[in-house]
Every structure is written in structure tokens, then in C-alpha cells.
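Request: When convenient, would you put together a sequence paired with its C-alpha cells?
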Amino acid sequence: MDPKWNEDQPIYRQLRDRVVAMILERVLTDGDALPSVRNVAAEYRLNPLTVLKGYQELVDEGLVEKKRGRGMFVNEGARTKLLKAERQRFLDKEWPLVLATIERLDLDVTDLLKDAEPKKSSKDSGGEND
């Protein structure tokens, strides 16, 4: 987790968002334990109640479960649930802005997609720099 916090959002919410990113990026997978509240609080010099509040949001969302005396663990299907929600958020909030920018700049969608395709290297011999 990144130890830098911004001023725009409460730290507990940023902590929650970082755990969500770790699940989406497969750093944490189904059944994995989250770092303990005590360890996160000590490592990032946070109040343990702040960490607990961020973790509790994940529990409330059904992404994580508390196991008394053992810690908190990623629920089965958490990534799938997050992907569904994140995709919908992207389509509702971000895509209209992207589309408006494409139209405003009179960009050709076909060219954009072609430019987004991974470039094939002419040097497939491995180890050489392009």
C-alpha cells in the first residue's frame, strides 16, 4: 500500500480504496488475509480505529469477512463483485467524459483503437532493447 495520503478524502476511505485496488489487481485474492489492523496502523502511523473503520466498510460491502481472533479475509467472489460495480461506475461516470473529449477533439475512434493495440516488436530475439 502507498503510504501517501491526500487531503481530499478521509484516510479510512483511502485505505478502503487501496484494499479494493489490491483485490482488483489480484494482489489479494479470495481467502487471503488482509494485513492486520495493528500492523497497518503501526506501519503507516495511523490510529487503529481509522484502519478498523476502513476495513469495516469492506465488511459492510460484503467484500471481506471478519473471523474472530483470526483477522479479516477476502470473501469468495469479491473481485467479481468489484469488477461489476467498477465497470458500471466507469460507464456511468467516466465514459461520458471520455466520449465527450473524443468528440470535442474530433478524434477517429478507429485510429484510437489501432493506436491502443500492443505494438509488435520487430526484434523477437529476447533480451535486446527496442
In short: The chain has a mean pLDDT of 89. The chain has two domains: 11-78, 85-116. The radius of gyration is 20 Å.
